[in-house]
Structures are given as C-alpha cells and as structure tokens.
Amino acid sequence: MTRARPTPFRSRLTLEALEWRDQPSGLEWEPLTNLGTQPVFVALADAPANKAPEIVDFDAAEIGNGHFLITGRVVDETPGGRTVTFGGAVAQLAGKTVVTDEDGNFAITVRIKTDGTEGGTVSAVTTDGQLMSKEVLTHLSATPTP
Questions:
Q1: How far apart are the first and last CA of the chain?
Q2: Is 30 exposed, middle or buried (0-12, 13-18, 19+ CB in 10 A)?
Q3: Which DSSP string corresponds to 115-129?
Q4: DSSP-based three-state secondary structure for 6
C-alpha cells in the first residue's frame, strides 16, 4: 500500500502594528483615541479611598427623671443617612437604630428606672455599606428618685 504524498499548501500571516495601545507603560495615564496619529494622555484622578466611618462625640446626658438623651456624630465621606445601631446592657436600646442627618448628627432618648435596677453601658456602631465603625461606649446611670 502506498501513501499519497500530501499536497503542499501555502499560508500567509500578516502582522498589524499594535502602535501604543497594547504597550503597557506603567504610568497611570489613559490615552484618548481618535485624535489623530499621536496619542494624547490625560491623568486619571486617584479615587478616594473608602475609610471606615467613625462615631465621635458619643455621650449620654440625663435630662430628668431617668430620661437620657444620647447623642453623637458620624464622621465619613458621606455622613448623612447612616444608620447607627445601639446595643449594650440597657435593654431598651438593644437593637434600636437611628439615621443620621446630612451632617452625621444623631440623637435618641431613652428612659430607665431610677431605682438603680436599670442602666449600664450603651454601645453604638455604624456602617457605610462596606466598612463598619469601631464600637463606641457610654454609660447610663439614673439619679435615684427620693
């Protein structure tokens, strides 16, 4: 049995110039296209880094007869509309939430018994959707009623 000799074939490979488009330069520049034969570069602005929000000025003040006003402020790139969640030893506040105003301020009132059976540490945290703040603490202790 004899084998037929394969028919020779020809192929042609054409290479196109890639110009500057696919040559990494290591620069943080982005070329604008369709502006002629020479590339034009525009500097890209650095995206601001997302930092975890922070609760500051967290405090509780007794406003009378076991009523407390708890206040604070959220510091963030966009502090408005952040949800602050409370926890801690005061059962009336566990899981309660408030929403900050456009400046990041928040406030909530709570009443605890004045006989010394309620009170304790109150905690608060917030998030910006990606990062959570550190927990902040304050203490409630009602002035006993005579």
A1: 119
A2: exposed
A3: SSSS-EEEEEEEB-S
A4: coil
Provide CB contacts within 8 A for 13, sequence distance 6+.
none
Write the pLDDT tens digit of every residue in 108-120: 999 999 888 888 9
Backbone angles phi, psi at 38, to 5 degrees: -100, 135
Residues 44-74: pLDDT tens digits? Answer: 666 677 899 999 999 999 998 899 999 999 9
Count Cβ atoms below 10 Å from residue 9 Cβ, excluding itself.
5
Length of the chain: 146
Whole-angstrom distance, CA of residue 10 vs CA of residue 28: 44
Tokens of 60: 């509780």
Only one residue has tokens 């009443």, namely: 111
Q: Return the structure tokens found at 20.
A: 């500057």
Measured between alpha carbons, how far is 135 from 55 in angstroms, rounded to an integer? Answer: 8
* 67-92 pLDDT tens trace: 999 999 999 999 999 999 999 999 99
Extract the tokens encoding 129.
Answer: 């959707």
pLDDT of residue 144: 82
What CA–CA distance (Å, rounded) separates 130 from 67?
34
